[in-house]
Amino acid sequence: MGKFIRIKKGFNINLAGKAAPKVTPVEHSDTYAVKPTDFQGMYLPKVLVKEGDTVKAGTPLFHDKRHTNVVHVAPVSGEVVEVKRGEKRKLLEIRILADKQVDYQSFKKYSTSDIASLSVDEAKKAMLEGGVWPNIVQRPFGFIADPEAKPKAIHVSAFDTHPLAPDYSILFKGQDQYFQVGLDILKKFTSGNVHVNVHTTSEISSVFSQTKGVELNKFSGPHPAGCVGVQIHHIDPINKGDVVWTLNPFGVIQIGKLFLNGVHDASRLIALVGSEVKDPQYYKTYTGASIKNLIKDKLTNDHVRIVSGNVLTGTRVGQDGYVGFFDNYVTVIPEGDYYEFLGWIAPSASKVSFHRAFGLFSFLNGNKEFKVDSNTHGEPRAFVQTGVFERVTPMDILPTYLLKSILAEDVDEMEELGIYEVIEEDLALCEFVDVSKHNVQQILRDGIELLQNS
């Protein structure tokens, strides 16, 4: 029996353009891409293929030089058409011109009875070779999990409270068996509990509600209740020296498919959402899908900001970009490249705001859907202490003082103020409500890198 936890602090950002419960196969994408930049802490990735090589779904493309056995593999079969690099030859992405029919590299299949008797080393070897290991994110710091680490617990957040987040009961419909097998594999890696965390007020899919051998925890409350860092904090907080692994449901399902079917199956649903999408809905495609193909003839205009993921923590990608490895949706909003005289202080009924002084009427109608753009309505200024960060952070930490300790490069104080418990998504709301317009998420990542290298 799991826990029931009520989250009181936070803020829901209700935007226009939610996905309708409709699933359409996307037109076949010409190219797909795998991007090392999707993975925090990636150190000098070594490329294992060259332009012109033919690959299958599951063929290794590159690995981190610190963990050479953690390979990142091709999501589809086809020809490697570009190994794109940036400044100082930094690897940005590997593009694959996809076959019309996916050809899978074969891995060993296991029956359910075989899985029950598998050792940890055998399970680890299969996951590393099959390219599903990068789905596991390690806390603290949010890096790909170290295969040699011993996590005290594993957490799977089975709901998302970010703006315009897709419905998990649609995303993972019919994946019950694979999800259960993935959990059975993950249980081998920890002496603690595997936690599946669901939201009480949303429809709980049978994929999650019928799981066996795990702790099913129920959460209620506003965003960031769906962030796994917040969930960990309320169930079993991370202290210095602790290691906790986290996955999203897709990663668990992909592990299950590898063991049952013997293939690296990167097929998935992607929600195309946002106020500038003509018909927001779900599309069948593969990890690393082309944005150009996904949005073709589906936008109301071309002057837009395309975000892989959500508007708080997602990555800005152009029409020539690709969907991120961990992203289940693409958000399209108007581009905010305009000047607004006194726009940052003028009361408005059309702006969504946590501060009643600015979004004067947005709090009066909690069900109203807002159309927002990328304009920040102001420039960075002095770090003003308003106490608002603490009102949207449902954790026993002081984000204002934590961020100041990072700016001061005070490692001891950073540790005391809880930096081991948070990554960017946990404090993204602080950036949204910050009247000083600071890049809170980047400050936090700078602190994490400083701590790691100290």
Structural class: alpha/beta
- By oligomeric state, this entry counts as single chain
For the largest beta-sheet, the strand count, sense and barrel status come to: 7 strands, mixed
The total of beta strands comes to 20
CATH class categorisation of the largest domain:
Alpha Beta
Count of separate DSSP helical elements: 13
Rg: 22 Å
CATH architecture of the largest domain: 3-Layer(aba) Sandwich
Which residues form runs of ≥5 with pLDDT under 50? Answer: none
Distance between the termini: 40 Å
CATH topology (fold) name of the largest domain: Rossmann fold
Record the strand order, biggest sheet.
Answer: 1-14-13-12-15-10-11
User: What is the overall pLDDT average?
Assistant: 92
What report would you give on this structure?
Helix 5 (206-209) links the parallel strand 13 (194-199) and strand 14 (215-220). The chain has a 7-stranded mixed β-sheet. A 6-stranded mixed β-sheet has the order 2-17-16-20-18-19. Strands 3-9-8-5 form a 4-stranded antiparallel β-sheet, with no helix packed on it. It folds into 4 domains: 4-23 and 106-261, Rossmann fold (3-Layer(aba) Sandwich); 24-98, OB fold (Dihydrolipoamide Acetyltransferase, E2P), CATH 2.40.50; 271-334; 388-453, no CATH class. The radius of gyration is 22 Å and the shape is globular. The protein is α/β, with parallel strands linked by helices and 454 residues long. The model has no long low-confidence stretch (mean pLDDT 92). The longest helix is centred in the C-terminal third of the chain and has 14 residues, at 440-453. It has helices at 112-117, 120-129, 168-171, 176-186, 206-209, 228-235, 249-261, 291-295, 388-391, 399-407, 411-416, 428-433, 440-453; strands at residues 4-6, 23-25, 31-34, 46-47, 54-55, 60-63, 71-73, 78-85, 91-98, 137-139, 143-144, 153-157, 194-199, 215-220, 244-247, 267-273, 281-286, 304-308, 315-316, 329-334. Helix 4 crosses helix 7.
